[in-house]
Amino acid sequence: MAGKLKREVGFSGLIFASLGGIIGSGWLFGPLAAAQVAGPLSIYSWLIGAITILFLGLTYAEVGPLFPKAGAATHIANVVHGNLLGKIWAWLLFMFYIAIAPVEVVAVLTYANNYIPGLLVGDTGLLGGLGLISSVVLLGFMFLLNFLGIRRVANIFTGLGWWKLAVPVLTIIVLVAFSYHPENLHVLHWHENVHGMFVAVASSGIVFSYLGFRQAIELGGESREPGKHIPLAVIGAIVIGAIIYVGLQWAFLVSMPPSQLTQGWAKLSFSGVFGPFAAIASLLGIGWLAVLIYADALISPGGTALVYATSAARAVVANGEVGAGPSFFTRITEGGVPWVGIIVAYVIGCIYFLPFPSWQKLVGFITTISVITYGIGPIVLLQLRRSMPDLERPFRLWGAQIIAPIAFILSSLVAYWGGFKALTYIFGTLFAILILYGIVYRIRGSRSRDGTPLGFKHITWIFPYFFGLWVLSWFGPKVLGGQGVIPFFWSMVAVAALALLSMVWALKVTVPDSQISEYFSVMNQEGVEL
């Protein structure tokens, strides 16, 4: 007999799951990548990223507790725009969640190459043969830990969380105490740095670093008090993460020895040493801090890999629940372990190492696809306010009519800043998925596996939205991989206008209110084991 997910996770488990997702490899690599793109204005890049994710997080703080199920984000996409959009979003989320654990494993091995030579190929940052073998083994260990059950895994989140917070804070204090050069914050080329300030948000691992906020939502089906704990965990994790990341970027900029900046921030590099903070500590003669950072480069990304291995398994379960994947994806042991999800997520996660064998190659792709999938939250929030005004909401967002559109605009801008190449890859994949479901539509006579209508009408808004983003990216500035026809800031105005029009359209083609009400009735009847 199949088991059910158990409500065994308290507030500390939820907030440390989100913090564990936020404080990962981003702090180990992001500050250098951001400084190379935006110079001293990279501090504001982290603030822009934090504001974007906070607006999205606020919408999910209301919507998330309404879906206390494993892989909640998949169900959120399904309820307002029907079966077909739920399936499409399920696969996009599937691609996103399974990619995170591998990128964190790559981060661990990238730092480990400093004391285990041969994991990477020269100074390229790419995994070599030994690195690929090690990545498969390490990723397997992260997924095996999930067989311990959610209560033990949540305890691991909490224990790792304190360490993951302490080391970055200590790094900020020690670096500034040993080396403080405020003149490094002087901006020489404002025009280039302002453009870079926005580009860095998507391309330098900034938004990627904040993405862990949704872990508390994904574990909602196993929370003891989802209505109370999910909003607090989401908002609290984003605010704490933002404070730490802005502090780290500032410390990185002001502690850098001026002798390293003779050719400017754009050409800053540390030959033969993978990891900027460890490199600075070594330059300043703080050997013990470099050793601590190398240790943390195993623990922080490793902890984040565990967090996302847990969420990836539940994304597989949700994929099966909405009919996007095979029904056996939903199989769970009597102890509450989604064993099929763990195996599927691990196998596909290993495949990611082949086309994306470095941290930098994976981050840009993950950031763009993540904000596209996150963008459904504000739309669902507004529609549920309209269609089910009396629905009991454990957390009710103040000013939702303003905050939700801003959140959707910001998520669209971050996707746009990801660049033409990333958008082309993702939308190409989406197009292939739509063709697949078009074939299913023809075979089944417009009905899905469970006999419900696929509902092409309800997804008509995504075609002009996605195609519009892609076209604007093509004609946009060269710094984003475009043709340079539309100036940078005017292109941002166009993206904002496209986002607002698409949101209005999306709210016009939702499923009937009665269908939304029925969805919640069925979901509440199913429940989870207490």
Query: What about the largest sheet?
Result: none
Figure out the total of helices: 20
Q: Please write the string of helix (H) and strand (E) elements.
A: HHHHHHHHHHHHHHHHHHHH
Beta-strand residue fraction: under 5%
Search tags:
mainly alpha, 68% helix, 20 helices, 530 residues, single chain
What features would you describe in this structure?
The two termini are 17 Å apart. It is globular, with a radius of gyration of 22 Å. The chain has 20 helices and no strands. With 530 residues, it is mainly alpha-helical. The mean pLDDT is 81.
Topology:
Layout: H1 11-22, H2 26-38, H3 42-63, H4 72-112, H5 129-144, H6 150-178, H7 190-203, H8 206-210, H9 215-218, H10 226-255, H11 276-283, H12 287-321, H13 339-351, H14 359-374, H15 376-387, H16 400-417, H17 420-444, H18 462-475, H19 488-508, H20 513-526
Task: Give a brief rundown of this model.
The chain is 68% helix and 0% strand. The chain is an all-alpha fold and 530 residues long.
